[in-house]
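Two folds, back to back.
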Amino acid sequence: MTWLSTKQGQFTYFAEEIGQKDWSGKTVLDFGGNIGNMLRDPNSTIDPALYWCLDIDRESLDVGKASWPEAHWVHYDRHCFFFNPTGVPNLPLPDLGRKFDVIVAYSVFPNTSRTDMLELVPQLERLLDNSGALAFTFIDPNYVPWPEKFDGDNFAWRLDREGNDLSTPESRGMIERARRADWCVLINGNDLYIETENIAPVPPEQQKTSHAFHTVAYMKSLFPHAVIKPPANGEMQHCCVIRKD
């Protein structure tokens, strides 16, 4: 199955979170970059020849390569619930043969396990060049992203998007449990796990969605050397920024 992302604005988001709009001349690794939406952002200042996209979906990479053949498109066959259930668990990052000035990961760790995040962030850090920056997003369940449009926090918004009736006791109970947790995972829209990865086995064909939530305080405890930035560009996601220096 192919997962083609049409999301716009990733470059604008990360430029604001990192604090630099001119990325010309910088080598960029887009981890989980799909079809290369960082390049599709009309505000992008990335030189396509200095852009690397690493993703688990081959078809998305092919689409990106057709648009920017001068960029670098690398398949990474790591296991991921729903997106790549037949992939290789714990597969290390491939050797890309270089370091990077900027590494970004948009909406990757909100869809992977806590264990994967803790394994992959140090690997990505090791790919940073001198004075490089790694920026990756996460979703705080308690943050209220769009109070003028939706009366609820990020977790309630996701429950609603997954088709749950927020007025039921079951939904209200999940919202309250998520509100008290440091981190949690919502599997297939209605199966909530609080601070555990002991998830009941799900056959690949029944793996629909996996949404991970981490509070700002918890992310600060996991990555004390990171700067946690609030959502930018009208997004719901916070950002961890780790600098090589």
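---
second:
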Amino acid sequence: MILEMKVPSPGESITEVEIAAWLVEDGDYVEKDQPIAEVDSDKATLELPAEESGIITLKAEEGDAVEVGAVVCLIDLDGKKPEGQSAKESKTEAPKVIEKQVETKTTYASGTASPAAKKILDEKGITPSEVKGTGRDGRITKDDAVNATPSMGLPTGGLRNSERKKMSMLRRKVAQRLVAVKNETAMLTTFNEVDMKPIFDLRKEFKESFKEKHGVGLGFMSFFTLAVVRALKLYPDVNSMLDGDYKIMHDFQDISIAVSGPKGLMVPVIRNAENLTFRGVESEVKRLALRARDGQITVDEMTGGTFTITNGGVFGSMLSTPIINPPQSGILGMHNIVERPVAVNGEVVIRPIMFVALSYDHRVIDGRESVGFLVAVKEALENPIEILMDNNIKKALEL
């Protein structure tokens, strides 16, 4: 009996996927539920498990775009498992194709260098083959060596490889969305700076007891998420989005967080962040980050956010203008924390400072709302005990 395996729907509105990599080969024996392929949609990369055990026949090539519901392989259910053979282990990476490898070597009509000339060339880091000698039979003289200059942009004989690799469907879709955002929104960015010392002090005092009690670290994301939730309530336009001629207002805060996964940047969503405590935010951030890292994140977990937080600071970014995650109207960029001299009560002191940036769609959000929102975030981060913890640290941290 032959089973036709069809492409399942990865999520609503997705009609086509791309075969990113086959994890088995044509003619292999596969076990039921064994991952046999990785498929890319325009929102996520998912594994395709075998529906039954048997001998597999592949009906699509890596890189092929196939419609949801199309047959991608056949499984012969009567096929017997070869004696002593187990299902093949998954490939970890699709094979790379080197389009062109060129070794280029340029030589000059030259002879040998005199001992004096060779010493000068060695000091300059120039090989005799790069110099055209003016002496007898092309011999390189001392004057030739003195006047010689290093090659500026000429090939030196080393390998000069180039690789042409098709971008995944997910990456191509991300590229299209980013260009669309730049072209179709009135995007603007406003900046501010945050003195992180109050948060540093809190984390230093309570991070160990917090982790011991809850099993997760007390990071920066919980402070920023709760500060953003408060600011979105104060400035609801930042939590809205355009739909044609209509503006959609939300009475909830679903916060998208940018995390790094094996297939690139992913943006899972913390649902109803307004109902979460510090422990709740940190637990959810950890859960989503692990699922993204392990390639288990689903399309549903990455759709429907109302506002995004991205942290370029983990990679060392000092300042940036983050691009809006459509159809949202705003995104907050966090950056690295650097000790800087600042004025406090008329005195210059050293404080850990983070620059923050809010990019927003000016069609929806006016300057007053955008600046006010970012100031509200700054106020909450610089006064976390009063504003985010209601002057009760242990209750807020559930210690």
